[in-house]
Amino acid sequence: AAVLVVAPAFTSSRLRYWVSDLDDAIARARAVEEASVAALRDAGVAADGHVGSGDPLTAIEDALRFFDPELIVLLRNGSGPRRYRGRLLRGEVERRFGRPVTELDPAGTTTTRRSP
């Protein structure tokens, strides 16, 4: 199996996003991508990484231009509004890209649903 880790460059605030202050977001995403790829490779998984747009849907769409996965895995991180958005994101990913989606969260809960 081959894995592509896509780390969206989330900004810390909407203002930073709108004024294109993305340096910190890109640096954090790159660190996540590099650590994730290293951990997967250490476990014997063929993995590469990509820093994507701060919008997860755009990041996935961009990655699909050069990587054709059988399954999309979303890692939900945190609580509150992002966690809620993460729940909405899964359905949108399934609808838009027509692939099965597995969602992981920090508590270790995993759910998989096949898209029609």
Word description of this protein:
- The protein is of the alpha/beta class and 116 residues long.
- Helices cover 43% and strands 22% of the residues.
- It is built from 4 helices and 5 strands; from the N terminus they run E-H-H-E-H-E-H-E-E.
- The protein has helices at 14-18, 23-42, 56-63, 81-97, and strands at 2-8, 46-52, 72-75, 101-104, 110-113.
- The strands form 2 sheets. The chain has a 3-stranded mixed beta sheet with strand order 3-4-5, with helices on one face. The chain has a two-stranded parallel sheet with strand order 1-2.
- Helix 4 (81-97) links the parallel strand 3 and strand 4.
- Helix 3 packs parallel to helix 4.
- The longest helix has 20 residues, at 23-42.
- It starts with a strand and ends with a strand.
Task: Please give a handful of descriptors for the protein shown.
116 residues, alpha/beta, 3-stranded mixed β-sheet, two-stranded parallel sheet
The overall strand count is 5
Largest sheet: 3 strands, mixed
- H-E order: EHHEHEHEE
How much helix is in the residues?
Answer: 40-55%
- Mind telling me the C-alpha Rg? 14 Å
The N- to C-terminal Cα distance equals 23 Å
| Fraction in beta strands | 15-25%
Principal-axis shape equals globular
- Overall average pLDDT: 80
Spans with pLDDT under 50 lasting ≥5 residues? 80-84
Strand order, main sheet: write it out: 3-4-5
**SSE class:** alpha/beta
Number of helices: 4
